[in-house]
Structures are given as structure tokens and as C-alpha cells.
Amino acid sequence: MGMRLRKAVETKRNFLINKLINEGIYKKNDIHLFEWTLTDLEEEYRKLRKTKQIEANPEDHPPCMIEHWAIH
Fold first, then answer.
1. How far is 70 from 63, CA to CA, in rounded Å?
2. Which of 8, 17, 27, 59 has its CA 20 to 30 A from that of 65?
3. Residue 24: helix, strand or coil by DSSP?
4. Residue-range domain boundaries for the chain
5. Inter-residue contact 33 to 21 (CB < 8 Å)
6. C-alpha span between 19 and 11 (Å, rounded)
7. CA-to-CA distance for 13 and 31, rounded, in angstroms?
8. pLDDT in 10s for each residue of the chain, 72 residues
């Protein structure tokens, strides 16, 4: 279970980092995205979606960790 959770968190972090980079966000307060916690990345992505009013598209949603657990 530990490896699955770690993989799910890593997948979600990578997804969020890529989405933020695509929007021109590379770092904040001199801290690069790869140094951020998952919670920080999620919060920034929520702010971005709210500010830019990004259309709801299934591909724009971060991977669901529960879905990954159910598959394996």
C-alpha cells in the first residue's frame, strides 16, 4: 500500500507541476515548484483555476488517488 500511495502522490504532484508550468508559474518566493508540498501545489492550482476560470475538462483534473488504489 505504501508504494501505491507514494506513486499516486508523485503522479498528482507531477500533474500539478506540469499544469502550473504550462501557465507560466515556475517558482514563487524563490521556491521552485518541485520543492513545494502537494498541498501547496493543489492550493496554487485551485487559485489558478479560479482566477483564469479554466474550463472544467476531465484532462485538467489532477489524477484521483482513490481511483489508483481501486485499480490495483
1. 13
2. 27
3. coil
4. 2-71
5. yes
6. 12
7. 15
8. 688 999 999 999 999 999 999 999 999 899 999 999 999 999 999 998 888 765 555 556 666 655 544 444
